[in-house]
Specification:
Structural class: alpha/beta
CATH architecture: Alpha-Beta Complex
Number of domains: 1
Strand order of the largest sheet: 5-4-1-6
Strand content: 5-15%
CATH class: Alpha Beta
Order of helices and strands: EEEHEHHHEHEHH
Number of strands: 6
Mean pLDDT: 88
CATH superfamily: Spore Coat Polysaccharide Biosynthesis Protein SpsA, Chain A
Helix content: 25-40%
CATH topology: Spore Coat Polysaccharide Biosynthesis Protein SpsA, Chain A
């Protein structure tokens, strides 16, 4: 059973410059909440129990987002706002699932995955690249289900326009 996910977040975020020069793209709000929370929710729904974020020193704001207890405690005490208290409870739940690993030099996705080798407990794990959100379908759940059925590694992909392949990468299936 796949219970761990690794999520590389150490990238430079160049597609969303200039905002990503000061703010990690993973924390940018999408429909009122940071994009990274959609990924966490997908993982939880798919049965993931532990998430390993691979960050760089430039992305420490992500770590702070999940470890800002004193701020929440102070504002909850002062404001007594149930919405804020509920948000804090959610963040605390996520925080219990998350570990942080550093990749300070951008050496690609393979190097990022290697940074987690001391934390991975099983032969198989979920690796999510959070650059594109798929909201109406839980691809993680589907991949884990297919893995359980086929007992092998699974890689999700999609067709992209040939003109934009340099943004996404390419692989081919040998027949």
């Amino acid at each position: 059973m796949i219970r761990q996910a690794i999520i590389p977040l150490a990238g430079l975020g160049t597609r969303l410059l200039p905002i990503t020069s000061v703010y990690p793209k993973e924390l940018l709000p999408i429909n009122g909440k940071p994009g990274i929370e959609y990924i966490i929710e997908e993982c939880i729904e798919a049965g993931i129990k532990e998430i390993i974020f691979i960050i760089s020193k430039k992305k420490e704001l992500i770590k702070r987002y999940f470890n800002n207890d004193k701020f929440y405690e102070k504002i909850i005490k002062k404001k007594k706002d149930k919405r804020i208290a509920n948000e804090y409870k959610k963040i605390q739940k996520y925080k219990k699932m998350i570990k942080f690993v550093y990749q300070n030099k951008p050496k690609g996705t393979g190097d990022a995955a290697l940074k987690t080798k001391n934390f991975i407990k099983d032969n198989f794990f979920l690796m999510l690249l959070p650059d594109d959100l798929i909201i109406k379908k839980n691809c993680s759940k589907d991949m884990i289900s297919l893995h359980n059925k086929k007992k092998c590694s699974i890689m999700a992909s999609m067709l992209v326009n040939r003109k934009t392949v340099n943004r996404w990468g390419i692989y081919s299936k040998k027949i």
